[in-house]
Design goal:
Elements lengths: L2 E5 L2 E3 L5 E8 L8 E6 L6 E6 L5 E3 L7 E6 L4 E6 L8 E6 L10 E5 L2
Parallel strand pairs: 2-10
Antiparallel strand pairs: 1-3, 3-8, 4-5, 4-9, 5-6, 7-8, 9-10
């Protein structure tokens, strides 16, 4: 079955960096656009970035220039490099092939001093 396992989150000070990873299984990974989403406390889940099978990328305006999405098709992994983190980036981060089930457990990112 389709499964996503996110990792790499943690507590970081404003201005710091984190690299999230997501391992996907149950799909022909190389054929899919891969997405990162996030959900902050009390808010709806939002799209953050995506990377197509052809490695075309796009980002929500609030993270442009700070976050970089990449993929390793040989390992079925998608990454999110997050730099210059801000408190408003605090959320649980998820990867998926679209905004639908199933979702992984996510990885918590907390940006705080």
């Amino acid at each position: 079955q389709v499964q996503f396992v996110e990792s790499g989150g943690g507590l970081v000070q404003p201005g710091g960096s984190l690299r999230l990873s997501c391992a996907a299984s149950g799909i022909i990974f190389s054929a899919y656009t891969m997405y990162w989403y996030r959900q902050a406390p009390g808010k709806q889940r939002e799209w953050v970035a995506h990377i197509t099978s052809g490695r075309i990328t796009n980002y929500v305006d609030s993270v442009k220039g700070r976050f970089t999405i990449s993929r390793d098709n040989a390992k079925n992994l998608v990454y999110l490099q997050m730099n210059s983190l801000k408190p408003e980036d605090t959320a649980v981060y998820y990867c998926n092939i679209g905004p639908f089930d199933p979702w992984g457990q996510g990885t918590q990112v907390t940006v705080s001093s």
